[in-house]
UniProtKB/TrEMBL annotation:
Pfam family, one: TENA_THI-4
Organism: Streptomyces griseofuscus
InterPro entries to which the protein is assigned, alphabetical: Haem_Oase-like_multi-hlx, Thiaminase-2/PQQC, Thiamine_Salvage_TenA
UniProt xrefs under Gene3D superfamilies: Heme oxygenase-like (1.20.910.10)
Lineage: Bacteria, Bacillati, Actinomycetota, Actinomycetes, Kitasatosporales
Name recorded for this polypeptide: TenA family transcriptional regulator
Chain ranges of the Thiaminase-2/PQQC domain: 11-214
Pathway assigned in UniProt: Cofactor biosynthesis; thiamine diphosphate biosynthesis
């Protein structure tokens, strides 16, 4: 069994929970409250995606081979560039559904997640490539599921089309997974343990992030009612 197969096997229960989460199912059928989508999109744009881009750049700097560094640096650049598109998407959401008030800052889960991304990307190459993989891999798998389950014509159809990446993203994910297997070929047991631990922790944050959006998580607590 390759390392990617082992990671896939260990992550599958979490991925199943993510796919079945009411945030994603509500997005597919249009029943998700707009405030929950705003929470998700705003936290992603303002905090998580920038932290992920910086973490990719730091990891690229310590890659062992030039082609690996180029892959990660290219992903970092593309992630930074995606922020302008995400800003426009927030504007579309605000125009259509309004901006929830009061505007919140970073949520507890987002703070923990971004701190994790920073920590793994400064710890070691093994911890970094393992910890950063879920944001790539789970995004791909969630988007494949969204396209399969989307109810045509619902109010979030356009947002989903913008959120899901183009065909070239699959090639990037495959290249990242190949990097994982290549790293595993010469890694020590300690390095493999760091990589797998980082991957599982990152995967838990993928579930926690959609739960935080569903609950409208904030430092003041969860509002008793959502916008409909």
């Amino acid at each position: 069994m390759t390392l990617r197969q082992r990671l896939c096997s260990r992550a599958e229960p979490l991925l199943t929970q993510v796919r079945a989460h009411p945030f994603w199912t509500g997005l597919c059928d249009g029943t998700l409250p707009p405030a929950s989508l705003w929470h998700f999109a705003e936290q992603d744009f303002r905090f998580t995606v920038p932290a992920y881009a910086r973490a990719l750049a730091r990891t690229a700097a310590v890659a062992r081979r030039p082609e690996q560094g180029a892959l990660l640096a290219g992903a970092a650049g593309a992630t930074f560039e995606s922020l302008s598109r995400m800003s426009r998407e927030l504007g579309v959401l605000a125009d259509r559904f309004g901006t929830p008030e009061p505007a919140g800052g970073i949520s507890p889960t987002t703070l923990a997640h971004t701190s994790f991304l920073t920590a793994v990307s400064t710890a070691s190459l093994a911890a970094a490539i393992g910890g950063l993989l879920p944001m790539t891999w789970f995004h791909q798998q969630v988007c494949l599921d969204l396209r399969r389950r989307l109810v045509p014509g619902t109010r979030y159809t356009d947002w989903i089309a913008q959120y899901c990446p183009g065909d070239g993203f699959d090639g990037y994910v495959e290249a990242y997974l190949a990097l994982i297997d290549d790293f595993a070929a010469t890694a020590s047991e300690a390095e493999l343990a760091l990589l797998e631990d980082g991957f599982l922790h990152g995967a838990y944050y993928e579930l926690a992030f959609c739960e935080a959006a569903w609950q409208l998580q904030s430092w003041a607590g969860t509002p008793s009612e959502r916008n409909s």
